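Page 47, continued from p. 46.
Same chain as before, 339 aa.
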Amino acid sequence: MIQQDIEKIKLLLATPKHIVIVPHKNPDGDAMGSTLGLYHYLKKYNHYVTVISPNDYPGFLKWVPGDNTVLIHDYQTDTCNNLINKADIIFTLDFNAIHRTGNMETVLEQSKGIKILIDHHQEPDDYAEFIFSDVTMSSTCEMIYHFIDMLGDSDLIDTNIATCLYLGIMTDTGSFRFPCTTSTTHRIIANLIEKGADSAYIHNQVYDTNSYEKLQLLGCALKNLKVIPELRTAYISLSQEELNTYNFKKGDTEGIVNYGLSLDNIIFAAIFIEDKQEGIIKISLRSKGNFSVNDFSRVHFNGGGHINAAGGRSDLSLNDTIKNFISILPSYSKALNDE
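Result:
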């Protein structure tokens, strides 16, 4: 984001405004951390701020400071639409295409509010007046930290903001082990801890609080793990019946795809999760090195994301989706084996 844009945004924020902040559908730690971190910052200037999530999010994110203020569009549609329609400014965080908001797409497209996009995914759509897009950043939370700093307000980062931003950086970097973690990321994390983020508490809330049924579901997923060694690929599937058996709750499958990627000599991993309610197969893709699951997902599964982490979907049955996936792989044999 150029300095000229920062000055314009400063001017916009100089007086109290009606502001809506929106994450993507099925928000994760980075989406909720960035939206709530920005929420706490903007409240310091007496703006009328609301975070509106397209749908509900996992229980392991319900502790985040400000969670009790979040509106869910699926549950409170009329209230949310009214707020969007009267908003002076709409921040869209952790996504860069309006369709990623699900049922909110139309009302956001028709809204008159000035849109500000802050995101680190590839190939952003051109729907916002102000775009802060940087694919080299570890997370949108890291970008919100820089955004607040560019506005000259890093001194305003308090415990609530620090906790929110730490959460998103931690989750999107895989607890600081993914290649997107830089020395700058670590310096920001150190600053957030100094500002009051409790690293042990945040980690425990996200990763160390499990139900018995969630662990049973993990066991089921690992039993379903398949490996295609000649293509250095592993995949996992979970049917709706299996999800029901273990009383699946939103967020229970978070991170399972990484077990496939942890296998020796595997550089490409996928998980296919049946969703009967939406009538689709949800797909998460992970890779190592330069094999781009972003490109793979965009070409074959109506998705996208990052080079090493992406998502997609299929309208075929679970079995047919897997068969399709397996049939595609040989055309990537050279890329997978050269990596």
